[in-house]
Every structure is written in structure tokens, then in C-alpha cells.
Design brief:
Blueprint (H helix, E strand, L loop, with lengths): L1 H18 L18 H37 L12
Helix pairs in contact: 1-2
Length: about 90
Amino acid sequence: MGLSALVYWIVGVGGYLMFKQRTAGDLLRNFGGASAMGLRGAYERALKLCYGAAILAAVPLTILPFYSIVAPLLDPHQVSVVQHKG
């Protein structure tokens, strides 16, 4: 979870520092996409890749607790995926 937050923070601060007053609410809208060339284009693609990686890393962190709560409700005889140590 901390790694995901760190990636979000890096992308957010990087986007703000790059666009300053022109920063849109959705940082990905600020980037030129395929029209950006050279080092700036590589930087923009790297930021988009990091943003996508952060989202992909956050999905399992959201689904696993949901699954461990709902699965026993659907099948009470099923063993929980997450073992709690008490």
C-alpha cells in the first residue's frame, strides 16, 4: 500500500512541477501523447506507465480483502484465503 501511495505521489508531484499553473485535475490530460517527441515524450510515457502500474498494483489490494469477506458468506464450508493469526 505504501509503494502504491509513493508511486501516486511521484506522478502527482512530477505532473504538477511539469505543468505548474496549467495543471488539470486529470494529469494524464496534460500530456501531449503521441505528438511529444524526444526526452519530453519519453518522460511523459514513463509517467503514464508509472501511473498505470500504480493502478494495477492497487487492484489486488482492494480485491483480496473483499474476497476474504464475501467468500465465506457465499460458501460457509470454503476455507478463507487469508489466514488470520490471533
